[in-house]
Design goal:
The chain is mainly α and 325 residues long. The chain has helices spanning 2-32, 45-73, 75-94, 101-133, 139-171, 189-199, 201-206, 208-213, 218-223, 228-239, 264-302, 313-324. The longest helix is centred in the last third of the chain and has 39 residues, at 264-302. InterPro entries: MFS_dom, MFS_sugar_transport-like, MFS_trans_sf.
Length: 325
């Protein structure tokens, strides 16, 4: 159950972060198309960078803030709050409004920042909760299973985009842009990108009840909250068997490291581990995030999808989703 709950956090995180990459071309067509031009509209480079990257700015702030807050208030309480933030702001991003393209993009970027803020609060908490629930023998496999849900979240996003675009394309047929520029963009296309952005709230909301029922991790309760009695009660719920506290709470000697993250003791013992871990994650994420956020542009450049002017707006989104799958 812990794997499923934490894994759905990663699933939702990946969906919310990368579904925007599927719909930016559609947004560009809707709000930046000039019918007199030979080519359909597209987001200007600076606008495209802002729309794609603003959520990542939120993730940087979110992981630092919620990581710190999770150590102060406990994993369980903060874990539920990050989920609420992701759900509400994902809905809000789908309801973005504005009288002009500039105003709408500004609203969208504002609401895309906050799901990113919640996503990277959820990201470290999911990994931490899973590692603290697992023992040494199973920890690697359990954390790998949780991280693997990222891939399923990306896949789910492409399936949703493919299904929604196909449904609207069949319901509202349109000609290619080079045939009739105005007719290639049906008014109902504006609903498509909004539905895709908001759809990620469904798997997140389904896990909210189970997050509330999930007890605090015993390692946090013992080592940080210093409450062995509560830790024993929580683990009794998890293991569904009675666990008796071995000694009086006041007599427990908390052996272990109590120095801070940036202290000399920590750097001497774990500095090399920290450097190796962070540097490899950094190099991985450069390729991982760039590929997923700008994959649609690669498809166009290498000719895996036809030129934009030979398709209508919904057909282009449908083909991008099909290629990404």
């Amino acid at each position: 159950m812990a794997i499923v709950i934490a894994g759905m956090g990663f699933f939702t995180d990946a969906y919310d972060l990368f579904c925007i990459a599927l719909v930016t071309k559609l947004i560009g067509r809707i709000y930046y198309t000039d019918p007199t031009s030979k080519e359909p509209g597209a987001l200007p480079p600076n606008v495209s960078a802002a729309v794609n990257g603003v959520a990542l700015c939120g993730t940087l702030a979110g992981q630092l803030f919620f990581g710190w807050l999770g150590d102060k208030l406990g994993r369980k309480s903060v874990y539920g709050f990050t989920l609420i933030l992701m759900v509400l702001c994902s809905i809000a991003s789908g309801l973005s409004f504005g009288e002009s393209p500039k105003a709408l993009i500004g609203t969208l970027c504002f609401f895309r920042f906050w799901p990113g803020f919640g996503v990277d609060g959820d990201y470290p908490l999911s990994a931490t909760i899973m590692s603290e629930y697992a023992n040494k023998k199973t920890r690697g496999a359990f954390i790998a299973a949780v991280f693997a849900m990222q891939g399923f979240g990306i896949l789910f996003g492409t399936i949703v985009a493919f299904a929604v675009s196909a449904a609207f394309r069949n319901a509202y047929p349109a000609s290619a842009y080079y045939v009739d520029a105005k007719a290639s963009l049906v008014p109902q296309a504006d609903y498509v990108w909004r539905i895709i952005l908001m759809f990620g709230t469904i798997p997140a909301a389904l896990t909210y009840y189970w997050r509330l029922k999930m007890p605090e991790t015993a390692r946090y309760t013992v080592l940080i909250a210093r409450n062995t009695k509560q830790a024993a009660a929580d683990m009794s719920k998890v293991l569904k068997k009675e666990i008796e506290e071995g000694q009086d709470e006041r007599q427990v000697v908390f052996a272990g490291d109590t120095w801070g993250l940036f202290s000399r003791q920590f750097m001497q013992r774990h500095g090399l581990h920290l450097l190796a871990t962070t540097s490899t994650w950094f190099l991985l994420d450069i390729a991982f995030y760039i590929q997923n956020l700008f994959q649609k542009d690669i498809f166009s450049k290498v000719g895996w999808i036809p030129p934009a002017r030979t398709m209508n707006a919904l057909e282009e989104l449908n083909r991008i989703s099909a290629r990404r799958r």
